[in-house]
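Quick one: structure for this chain?
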Amino acid sequence: MGLVTLTKGQIVHKAMSDTVGTLEILVKGKIRATDQFTSFVINVGGIIGLVESPSKEYQYTYEALEYASVYTYPYEGTDDILAMLKCNEKITSVLASQSVFITHELFSEYERLFESALFEFKKIKSDYADYPELCIRAGEVPTKFEMLDLIVPPVKNNMLSSWEYGYYKSLKEHEAALGKSYYALSQDIAIGTIMIAEKNQKLISVSTKFLTAYKKQLGRNTADFTTTLKMIHAKIENNEKTAEGNENEPVITNALAVILTYSGVDSELSAKFQDEIAAFKASETRYDTADEARLLRKNISSSFYKIYKKVFLKSLSDKDIPIEVRMFLMFGFVDEELAGEKNTSILCNIARSYVPDPEGNILLLSEWLKKVYKLQANPSRNEFDQDWETYLREQKATGVLKQEQIDAMINNPDSRLDFEINNLFSLGNRMTFGRISVFVPVFDSMNVLKPLNLAYMTSSKIKEHISKIKSIDFGVFCRQAVYSNTDIGITQVYYAEEVEPYIILMPNAGTRATLWQEIEGKKRNTKARMLISIFNLENTEDCMIKLLGEFRWEMCKTEQGVHWNDVTDPSLTSMYCDYLQFFKKNQTLSSEQKDKLRLDLKKYNNNYKSIFISDYLAYLKYEATGSLRLNKVAREILFNSCPFSKQYREAVYDNPQYKELINHYTAHNANVSKPLQNLEFRLKKEGLEVPHELTDQIEYLAK
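Got it. Here's what it folds into:
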């Protein structure tokens, strides 16, 4: 034990260098304790080293902020702390007060460090979500940063409770009163306060160390992304400065000439299309309903699809497609003046930065046509709901085609392409555009009713919306399938097989999403085909919910066949048709609800599917969050056919409108699941491999 004087700036102990062997009581001046991320000040009466562990390296560096004096005591364990306190009976109340002060400071630093780490995590996640759009603005191709998928938010030490922080904060605020009326009452009270503080200080110190390690690891995992993001921001800033300095210089010039030259169409069609586009640009009433404007739009459409086919076919073998041509294939872009300078620049950046969906489910129209052309997918149904083979058979039956011609056409890429362009492309383009009577397939700034960066339907944006819908209606893409394996004693097990749809991005700025077909041919386990504008001008969430609601209805009709509206064979469609057809006699409905149904039927022209889609939107968007919008009958049909996931069932369970429905659903699933679980148990007991179809179905019933 001895008195040691310190000069300003003198290091008492150095972190990760000196070994803990002493405790010091500060009797004069101030000492600052610092580690990599935190620091706190020790005032007179503070104990230096209380937060440290004897015989270990110091975690903090202790530096004198001014001329100071300390009393030094040996420190090998807890007994040394008690010995030091007992021989300083007169100042234990001061030591207790300062121990509380330092503990509060450590708590505050820990809270600050946690908030800082959480902010960094959230910012990285937010930046990564914005990254694809920033790449579009910069004209760069987004890169996949796999390390970002591994990062998790910081977690507080569960041994540190929020009330403890509040407790020490309150002790610090009432320091003056406690020094006289509490710490000074008894040396044991003061010592107890100090010893409790010592344990908390060590615990906070360890927790801080974990947070420090977390921040370091977070920095390492995100370093590449952070560097790339800085480059992207720099490029965007540079592009904006360049644009400001060249306000009158268009990004792309003579785009139509480039597209027509690339297409290789004959001079007659080329000249005709140029004249049509020139007339279209010059007309201030180009979307008028007058015969002249309608004829012009019709002629442009006819020429457009012929040129599109030529351009598409050439692009299949071209590795260096001009940017104007890529914009034409993606967006229907034909002319920079018609599109507008700003839009042209955005379209150019989007086309340059486009990356195909790695899972191959969300496709540009040109990517879909490539699958059809290369026989990787069959052509879609036509407007009469005929698939490719049915159409050819019908052509033979009517005498339009002979068998030899059908044999030559059925696997002919060119014939299949023509069928797809004349049906899915030309009709689907009009449907997704929304305003069918004034549709024109070329990109026109007059149709841009929403900023393109916000309207652009990236694959990640679509997946995000679908994921949100599936988190509520978890069975939306599930089809009933049968598994059989007599070798292990399974004769027949029904299970839910999830089949994700194809979503095709149509080259227009439109307001609708539509289901083109729910299955391919007659196979129930094939992918649906859905269409949506590449620039969606409406509420995307509502569009996607309505799209999946339409799929729900049509898939049920397909599965039920001729019994789709037969109430003796209960299903989503049959129950809904019965409910809407006989609502006037339904005693469950109030007079107000019946009046509303009358108005809805009038609004939707007695189209039961449209009413269901409207109810499905309310069911997922509002009912799932506890905001009731449906009547009891509609709610029961929807819940029985499209039950909420477990998370949402638990959220609405206390609502009496749902409690009975949920109890019935849970009991039913438990009864269905029990024999499957017994089967799984038997297979495991016999040492046999459990088929994933069985385990998947057990998990599905528990969702």
